[in-house]
């Protein structure tokens, strides 16, 4: 089980990045020690999964790497993202579940999913 993912973010986009993850159901939580709080912000989603937003002057953002999150209330979340000005592009459905791709304010690719695939079920070509 993955407990957290660290994403590099420039200071200028940090507040917007925290707000973006808030639209996906993540709430800001305090890092366990002050030294971490001085150089990062942490957000936590349902089930305890965390995104650690690591403040750096020159963030590295993978061109095609991404984080995928399953969100309750998928249609409302996608609407909220669009209303907040994020381009949310519907993607091909896999496992009969809707999914959308969106870029975070810091440029990270995020796949928003209506449901997780069933365990052990491979992707079947159409």
Describe this structure in a few short sentences.
The chain is of the alpha/beta class. It is 19% helix and 30% strand.
Topology:
Layout: E1 4-9, H1 14-23, E2 27-29, H2 34-37, E3 40-44, E4 50-55, E5 66-70, H3 74-83, E6 88-90, E7 99-103, E8 109-113
Parallel strand pairs: 1-4, 5-8
Antiparallel strand pairs: 2-3, 3-4, 6-7, 7-8
What oligomeric state do these chains adopt? single chain
Largest sheet: 4 strands, mixed
Give the averaged pLDDT, no decimals.
92
Q: pLDDT below 50 for ≥5 consecutive residues: which ranges? A: none
Distance between the termini: 30 Å
Number of helices: 3
| Rg (CA only) | 15 Å
| Overall spatial form | globular
Spatial ordering of strands, largest sheet: 1-4-3-2
How many β-strand runs?
A: 8
**What's the order of the H and E elements?**
EHEHEEEHEEE
Q: Strand percentage, roughly?
A: 25-35%
Helical content class: 10-25%
Structural class: alpha/beta
Characterise the protein shown here.
This protein has 126 residues and is α/β, with parallel strands linked by helices. Helix content is 19%, strand content 30%. The protein is built from 3 helices and 8 strands; from the N terminus they run βαβαβββαβββ. The strands form 2 sheets. Strands 1-4-3-2 form a 4-stranded mixed β-sheet, with helices on one face. Strand 3 (40-44) and strand 4 (50-55) form a beta hairpin. The longest helix is centred in the first third of the chain and has 10 residues, at 14-23. The chain is globular and about 45 Å long. 20% of the residues are buried. The model has no long low-confidence stretch (mean pLDDT 92).
